Amino acid sequence: MKNKKYIIIITILLVLLVSLIIYFVKSSNNTTNSNNNTNNSTNTTTTTADTYNKSDIFTDRDLEQTVDTTSAKKYTVSSGENITITEEGIYVLSGTASNTTVYVEAEDQDKVQLVLDGVNITNEDFPCIYVKSGDKVFVTTTNDSSLSVTKTFTADGETNTDGVIFSRSDVVLNGTSTLTINSTDNGVVSKDDLKITGGTYNITATSKGLEANDSIAIAEATLNIKAGTDGLHAEYDEDDSVGYIYIGGGNIDINAQDDGIHATTIVQIEGGTINVKAAEGIEGTHILINDGTITVEATDDGINAASKSTKYSIKVEINGGNININMGQGDTDAIDSNGDIVITGGTINITAQSPFDYDGSGSKTGGTLIVNGTETDTLTNQMMGGGNPNGYRGGNQRR
Known about the structure:
This protein is mainly β. The chain has three helices and 37 strands.
């Protein structure tokens, strides 16, 4: 009897022990899976926040360059007479006038398309196109047109209407013809997103060529910009998590007195032919170049990553493209980063006394780097006063 009791007790204990082991194994696996899921989620969020995809930026309608005007309402502009648009739809503008403003005052969900069919407007002190409200406004050129403001801009109450095209809503510039803009302040201003997907734009402005709060995104277009301050400028002074510039293609020529391309967060270049002549060529918190043919002539910094946004890490990252940087004399840096410089691909040709200046780390794991005619694999940091005349301090150089 005693043996039977011991056998029963031992059996019960073994069952309990096995149950406990199974329980702890399952708990351990669940914890591990939970941790893995958390890590994966964090990595995905970081990647998504730092870069942009063309398909996420542009809608199909953004990318359409032609428009069916069969049912459109048509206006011929007349001097001294404003046009006010209050409903969603397509509106064709033609004719020549002075001191005339086309107002868009639509509902928040409305999309309005303004077709510039050979329209020429010259104003003294107020925008030629003023978008007060609406979801999105398309400015589409079907015949060569021009918009100009010749004197000091007048504010609209508390709104500083300082652009020839001035919008409080999203703006898309597209089309098949040429739009010429002359301004005594800014060329085109959007207090939201500004997209350019087609057409040719000749912009001369005493201040900024293109300005937006949230973003400037270029899919394809020909842009010729002469600016008294910045060529492209994306910044919202109340929120440093917005203000990016995306360039996916096109032919862009910028001659600016200050920055050629300036963004608060990220400047992302995926293609196109870009020529910049400015005091500072390209500036942002994160400069990401994956492709494109880029030429920068600068008298301050050629490419500069600086602390402008708390959302992004400070970095110049070059993964591809053909980049030529020609710097002026003196204490000027071709590629300057208050954080890191990372080069994994592309061809970079630098002519400068100081090719690199970085506060974090500098690495080159791919691509071709030529500094003052010498091929090198080393990113040498700036010496005081711009470095030696050859622009480097040593490293593996090949002629």
